[in-house]
Amino acid sequence: MSIKPDADQIHFLARPDERRLVLCLAEAFDATYAQELGGLSYWILDPTSRTKERFGLQKEVLAIYSRHQRTDARVLTTIESFVTRPDLRHRVEKSVFLLVHSGDEGEAAKLTKSDEGKVIIPFRSAELLSSGKGELFVRSRMAEVLGAIDLFGMSSPIVSERYFFGRTELVQQLARRLSVQKENAGLFGLRKTGKTSVLFAIRRALDQGTTLVEYLDCQSPGVHNARWWQVLGNLSCRLRDTLARTRNREIDIVGRYTPETAGTAFSSDVQRLLHAARVDHMLVMLDEIEWITPGISGHLGRHWDEDFLPFWQTIRATHQETANRLTFLVAGVNPSCVQRAHFGSLPNPVFQLATPHYLEPFSEQSVHEMIRVIGRYAGLKFDATIPGVLQRRYGGHPYLVRVACSEVWRQHKSLGPDEIRVLGGKEFDAASRRIAARLAQPIKDILLSLVWWYPDEYELLQILAGGDAEFVQEYLKESPDAFVQFASYGLLRENGDFAIADIRDFIREHGEAYKRELSPFSRSDVRPEMLPAAPDLDELGRLFAKKAELELKLRKLIVMYLGVQNGWSAEKMAHAMILGLKKSDERPEPAALFVGREARDVINDLYTADLASIICRHWDLFKNVFDDHKPRFEMNMETVNRARRVDGHTKPFTSEEINEFENSYRWVLARLKNIPLEGVQFGPSKGG
Questions:
Q1: Pairwise CA distance, residues 623 & 625, whole Å
Q2: Is 530 inside any structural domain?
Q3: Fewer C-beta neighbours within 10 Å, C or N terminus of the chain?
Q4: What is the pTM of this model?
């Protein structure tokens, strides 16, 4: 590695300790710039060609150096401030960062996991300076960290440009319609298709300009439980607060409305904010609009059958009184809020006032780009045929494609620092059963919106899945709008067949039972994520087997080491174990466990947390087994214990929980590799 002359002159020559550390990154990076700010230093590192190829890095990487004994949240604040700087935002990677620190390893590990959108790779100063670290140390650590994070399995809305794919043209179209043409819009699609991610992308596109953007999630109880004037008051306060935070402008508004004053007060507040803030435009995003739509808002939101009219009359009037400088974007599954002319006998004030847009399925090119970019961080490439296969198999549904890739990634994630693997049809075929099991819950989420809001259309899909395609074709000919709706949601192909085979198979096998499962509930009575999810029993069994393997080895390790240290005295071994056991409600006196029993018998009744506690109590005895990394041992054992705290518990687990367990399992198992599962004697051998 070289340090660019300018960076050396400006920063590193005056800081020899930092210079030694940055040179330790020689195998992977060149240092091009550095600066100190707020007690931390940041280095801009240019990846070598081998590092770029292995980890898919296309820009420079930001590294934060902390010389302090505590590694705290200032690191995240510094990262956020630098990646948004105009001179750096297009220069450095937005998702991958390095942290070089002198603090506690456990604290750093927790910190690096606290932001899902960022992959922070930690290095302790002492390990970088160690002469025995090896020539591939840096890239090995990068492979370990990047290979342990399931970027394919992310289920939260995308908040980073790095992981946003396939919708750029739609984002640009909507941003132009809303901010330039000053028109309203709607965005609709099934669950898990990325609607909220598109809203966040529009906000990112407009936030830096002359548009003030406010996002409101209507499924929040603070919104759908509130009355119409309260929501408008909350909205005006949020606009004021966003203005103060992003534009440093403090404006006084009315804020607290009554049914009598809300209509005029909201318009006055918006006009006051527009004038005083010198912004050209305000955009209000209303996500999950079904929660405040008449007829489908459910028991907790029945007042919206009446409140819908004055709420939207006020917003429409303000839109007109501000010469369209206030616009709105509604998003959800059911577009009736902007497509129905009347609700009961009352006219819909926003009928045809917002043009609806539908999230189309990903094209083969979009699937290719998504899996290529995400896979390269982990050293994975895909055969040229795979994007087309995935696009056709999952109908271009981005989340279902990522879940399938996530399941294959799990089997190929532990790659070396110079290893790249190409995945093809063979790997996907081998994982087909596991993929199908993983897709069951996302498919339920997708179909949930049809069961609730389109029951007739759902029954039509049941008929089609049952094999009566002729009846469905005749129906669609007579009701072409129904076909347009299905096609807009990416459920049916042009020939009238299912676009997603797994949805067809699910409806055929479980469609009627799932409808009955949901039939007692209405829209606001139960949220999809509150419905009980079925765990992957095969995965559950594998996790339990791995945990049992660790417990067996830990039990034998404790008995062997305590036995040797105490001359295999049963009394002394029992005393040593008692010192390491904590009191609890069910075990007020740990010593009672040993009454009439030997240590070798008692240890089989102890939980994972008990075994970890005994080892930590006698750390000087066991430290060499675990590289004298006590904080890391405690952190990994807590993760293993948390994964399945009670044997046989079948609560569904997330991909993040599985990844954390796998990482901790491998770390502990590697230190126990010399402890056999069989043939261990719990006492001195006959020969001595």
A1: 5
A2: no
A3: C
A4: 0.65
